[in-house]
Amino acid sequence: MSEIPSDLKYTESHEWVRVHDDGTAIIGITDHAQHLLGDIVYTELPDVGANFAQKDECAVVESVKSAEDLYMPLSGEIIAINEKLAEAPELINQDPYKDGWMIKCRMTQANEVDALLDKDGYAALANADA
């Protein structure tokens, strides 16, 4: 079973979100998603300053198996990207919830968090997906 931290929110498309009290959020792909993708070899992250609506395509993750889009779990402005992934995309495989984070945004619709899955909801989805 993949790791599913209880302090995060999740999407049906396998992104995770760590919401901070200051209105920012860190986003990445779940442990389940990185297992499905296999060895990640490249990421294409958005530009800092770009704005996205919830569910917009915002990044690409390429593995030895396929290329998959990352969908924005929350509306917001990109305020940082994980620059380490340019040289070491395998960080997503090694530690998807810490060193393998992908983007940080300033949320513009904080209430969108309410529609995201909690640990149990995502676990049920991931188990059905397995």
CATH homologous superfamily label: RNA polymerase II/Efflux pump adaptor protein, barrel-sandwich hybrid domain
Content of β-strand: 25-35%
Question: Treating each run of at least 4 consecutive H or I residues as one helix, how many helices?
Answer: 4
Q: How many β strands by DSSP?
A: 9
Oligomer status = single chain
The biggest sheet amounts to: 6 strands, antiparallel
SS class: alpha+beta
Identify the overall geometry: globular
What is the name of the CATH class? Answer: Mainly Beta
Strand-helix topology:
Blueprint: E1 9-10, E2 15-19, E3 24-29, H1 31-37, E4 40-44, E5 51-52, E6 57-63, E7 67-71, E8 76-81, H2 84-87, H3 91-94, E9 103-107, H4 119-129
Antiparallel strand pairs: 1-2, 2-3, 3-9, 4-6, 5-8, 6-7, 8-9
Short description:
The protein is built from four helices and nine strands; from the N terminus they run E-E-E-H-E-E-E-E-E-H-H-E-H. With 130 residues, it is of the alpha+beta class.
